């Protein structure tokens, strides 16, 4: 299936949207990515769109960094009478009960108090919710109204929701957005998914809001991202397949470093060999082997992490995102003056993450052993990155244009890379 572009929407509409919701740009409760995803298109257009991804970009939570996370071996799945019960450690669940997947929406109402609406899409609404057993924890629930989806697509979308829920249940890690419950209401044709509520918003929005920004902060974020990926690949056997900046959320409004990886709507198990040949992801962050329609593995996520690392340190993407450049991706550069302040070790790591040959590319675990992560923090704190911070601010503004227009790609970047006019934003490739 060929990818489709969405209708263009004016920049004036984007700015009106931003000005009406200042909390988004400041990294508040609402995350703009949710509103600008394909899910927001009108009901009349739903049948003409590619199948949507089920993003967790809004899903936010109070700071729970000190809680203990049990490994996946403590997660027990049992199937009885068509009902999957996912039993988790009590200290990972906001209600202090087991995570559930049940066919009775009334059970949701018995456990949670529905709060204010956070956002509305074509057939999903996100609310804040609070467990009735305690008012100290906050979660979010995304309510899918499948009656608003064409009948021929309902089964596929329902299966995708269940698949993402099951994968997230296996990812019990404090750097990954957690899922708590899934409830079905067959008579209403609705599905309720309860997840974490990350109060800090998107990572790049926080960087823009900072007064100063240095290489040590960038390193801390990249280390956390690689740690989450190493867990996904080695412990859980999961490939994310759609890593990008808007999928990196901050746990709290005050902590700049504790990111969580979100949006596993394109994820699949490493054991699903057929799945690891599908053409999917967001083109600007997608590894060359996917674009070449070759078989691939977990290192496609490492490539995406390399793109994110390059932007974090340089302030712009390494490649122009027109279609010709997306497929070639032979060479990138560390331009002056943007990269003058960045350490040689950081540049070396990026070069190894963005190796075109996946056999030569580092794994997430190998990357964590790189010399850059051994450097003294004081040295990296002294490496201020004003050019990167300014570049990320411009990059963020262009991402808004890309989100609202739904474009794949954009105008060509600088002479070798993506320094000029980069949106690095577009719809996913063919649904996975």
TrEMBL record:
What family is reported?
Belongs to the protein kinase superfamily.
Q: Which PROSITE patterns match?
A: PROTEIN_KINASE_ATP, PROTEIN_KINASE_DOM, PROTEIN_KINASE_ST
This protein's UniProt keywords: ATP-binding, Kinase, Nucleotide-binding, Serine/threonine-protein kinase, Transferase
Under which name does UniProt file this protein? Calcium calmodulin-dependent protein kinase ii
Q: Which InterPro entries match?
A: CDPK_Ser/Thr_kinases, Kinase-like_dom_sf, Prot_kinase_dom, Protein_kinase_ATP_BS, Ser/Thr_kinase_AS
GO molecular function annotations of the record:
ATP binding; protein serine/threonine kinase activity
Q: Quick one: which residues bind ATP?
A: 142
The yes or no answer to whether the keyword Electron transport is present is: no
């Amino acid at each position: 299936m060929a990818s489709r572009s969405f209708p263009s929407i004016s920049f004036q509409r984007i700015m009106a949207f931003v000005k009406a919701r200042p909390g988004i740009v400041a990294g508040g409760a609402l995350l703009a990515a949710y509103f600008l995803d394909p899910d927001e298109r009108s009901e009349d257009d739903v049948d003409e769109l590619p199948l949507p991804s089920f993003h967790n970009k809004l899903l936010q939570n109070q700071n729970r960094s000190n809680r203990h996370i049990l490994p996946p071996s403590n997660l027990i799945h049992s199937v009885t009478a068509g009902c999957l019960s996912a039993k988790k450690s009590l200290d990972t669940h906001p209600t202090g009960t087991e995570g559930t997947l049940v066919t009775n929406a009334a059970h949701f109402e018995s456990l949670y108090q529905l709060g204010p609406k956070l956002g509305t899409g074509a057939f999903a609404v996100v609310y804040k919710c609070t467990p009735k057993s305690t008012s100290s924890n906050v979660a979010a629930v995304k309510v899918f109204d499948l009656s608003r989806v064409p009948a021929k697509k309902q089964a596929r979308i329902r299966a995708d929701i269940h698949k993402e829920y099951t994968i997230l249940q296996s990812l019990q890690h404090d750097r990954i957005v957690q899922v708590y419950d899934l409830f079905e209401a067959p008579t209403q044709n609705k599905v309720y998914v309860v997840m974490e509520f990350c109060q800090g918003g998107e990572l790049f929005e926080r960087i823009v809001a900072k007064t100063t920004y240095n290489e040590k902060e960038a390193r801390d974020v990249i280390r956390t991202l690689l740690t989450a990926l190493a867990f996904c690949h080695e412990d859980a056997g999961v490939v994310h397949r759609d890593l990008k900046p808007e999928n990196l959320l901050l746990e709290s409004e005050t902590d700049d470093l504790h990111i969580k990886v979100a949006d596993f709507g394109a994820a699949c198990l490493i054991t699903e060999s057929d799945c690891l040949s599908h053409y999917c992801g967001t083109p600007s962050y997608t590894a060359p082997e996917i674009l070449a329609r070759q078989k691939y593995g977990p290192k496609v996520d490492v490539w995406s992490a390399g793109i994110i690392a390059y932007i974090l340190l340089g302030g712009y993407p390494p490649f122009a995102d027109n279609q010709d450049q997306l497929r070639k991706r032979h060479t990138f550069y560390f331009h002056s003056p943007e990269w003058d302040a960045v350490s040689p070790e950081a540049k070396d790591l990026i070069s190894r993450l963005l190796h075109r040959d996946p056999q030569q590319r580092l794994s997430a675990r190998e990357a964590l052993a790189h010399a850059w992560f051994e450097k003294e923090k004081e040295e990296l704190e002294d490496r201020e990155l004003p050019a990167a911070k300014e570049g990320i601010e411009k990059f963020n503004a262009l991402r808004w244009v890309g989100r609202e227009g739904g474009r794949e790609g954009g105008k060509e970047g600088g002479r070798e890379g993506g320094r000029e006019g980069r949106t690095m934003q577009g719809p996913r490739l063919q649904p996975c």
